Structures are given as structure tokens and as C-alpha cells.
Amino acid sequence: MELRQIEYFIVVAEELHFGRAAKRLQMTQPPLSQQILQLERELGVKLFERSKRHVGLTNAGKVFLQEVRQILPQLEQAKAAALRAQMGMLGRLVIGFVGSATFDILPIIVREFQEQFPNVDLVLREMATPMQIEAFHKKEIDIGFVRTPVVDPLISLMSVNQETCIAVVPKLHPLAKCTSISMGDLSTERFILVEREVWSSWYDDIITKCRDAGFSPIIRQDVKEIQTAVGLVAAGLGISIVPRSTLNLHARDVAYVSIEGEAPHVEMSIAWRTDDNSIMVKQFIDTVTSITG
To answer: The pTM is what?
Structure first.
């Protein structure tokens, strides 16, 4: 059964005249009659009572007309939906992101993309960069907001921002009154850091900067998220080094202090599978490019 046969049937059922129906369909009568006969054979029922002077619907034809009039609009909607999906206007995009992406760049990009493509269902999953790499290999995510460097031939990257780091200290800490400090000023402090397994390049950069300043840091606690580090600093358990965008957390009972000289720095990138030719992925990348320039 073909869609055009159903459309032909509806027109004949409305006109109850093969000649008028053929004219309305801009075709000749013989092929129209053939299509209706073929439809009846496929269904195994007689849809029309025919005579030289009269064409009428059988009971089966009346029931069939009632049903296909409900189905046809749904088919048209399905066709339109398929077309929108092909154009990247409809579908599902799964985005992995590190928690710190929510401090600045992620909300801006997601909001802009949703405004442009409101019918694309965005599914956001918070996960550390190593977990995102694994998820890309399993094809569980389409886009990732990751902390670089990432070296993987399967994954393409585009930098979205770079930022220097600042110190976060308890609000009543002596350093909280300073406008800026050096790395050396932290030599006797206990550090709360995001663990190396979660963010190895940043962890190593902090350790290197401390050693360049002449000391090895005292690690009081390793955590999995920047937010957790800030919370433990607020509890007075130590100090931490965090990306400057962490200022957007507006956390209570802590103070943020700039670091002079060669401070640690971090980079945020978006990632996608190199072999992914999805239009939605391309449109997301285009949105990021339009925002970050």
C-alpha cells in the first residue's frame, strides 16, 4: 500500500466520481481506476460500489475512509518531523560537561542553542573529562565540555576559553585581606585540590607552580569537584587554587585572591567525535563559534 493510493482513495471517496477525481488529481481516469483496484486487491476488500451512473462507498470503504482521514495528517506530521530532523532542527543531543563549565560558558551556549533550535532535546550529563572520553568511545555523548589537553585521535577539540587561576581562602584567613598574593605566600598552607585522576594537567600545573616558588604543597584533601573544594575551604579545612570563573559561585565564608606572576591556568574546550557528521553537532559547534568568536 502506497501513500499516494490512500490520497487517491480519499479524493475519489469525496467526489464519488472517477472523472472529477482524476481532474482534481490532475491525472487521467484509467490510471486512477487502476490504482484504486490495486488498493482494493492489497486490502482484500471492496471499497467502492461501481455502476455506469453511480459510484458509492461500501461499508468497508466508509470505515477505511474514516480511519485514513485520521492517519494521513499523522503521516504528514511524520514527514515534516523527518525533514526537520534531517535539517538538524529536531532530535536529541547528549552533552557531557565538567561541573566548572556551569560557572560561565555552558549556560550561555546552551541558552543560545535552545533559542535557535527549540525542538532539539538537549540532554546534559555532568562528568569529569576522563569519563567523557570514555563516553565518546561508547557513543554515549555527542558533545563534551572538557578540560584540555586531551590527546585522542577519535576526538576533535575546539578551545572555548582560557583563564588564569586564583586562590580561595577562608573569609577570616589573614590572606583574605590581600588584593593579590604570590604562590610563595601559600607555602605553609594546606591545599584542597581536585584530584589528579579527574584533572591531571591542572593538578600537575599547580604542583609545578608551587615547586617553582620553592616549596612542595601540603595536600590536605583531594576532591572530585571545584564546588566541593570551595565548600571545604569555607569550612576552614585549607585553601585551594581555582579557575577565575569560580568567582561566579558567590560562595559564603570564603575570599578570592588574585595570584601574581606565573599563576596556574586552565583551558575549556568543546569536544566531539571526529567521525561524527551529524548536522546537529555541526550546528552546536557553529553556535559555540558565534559566541566565542
So the answer is: 0.67
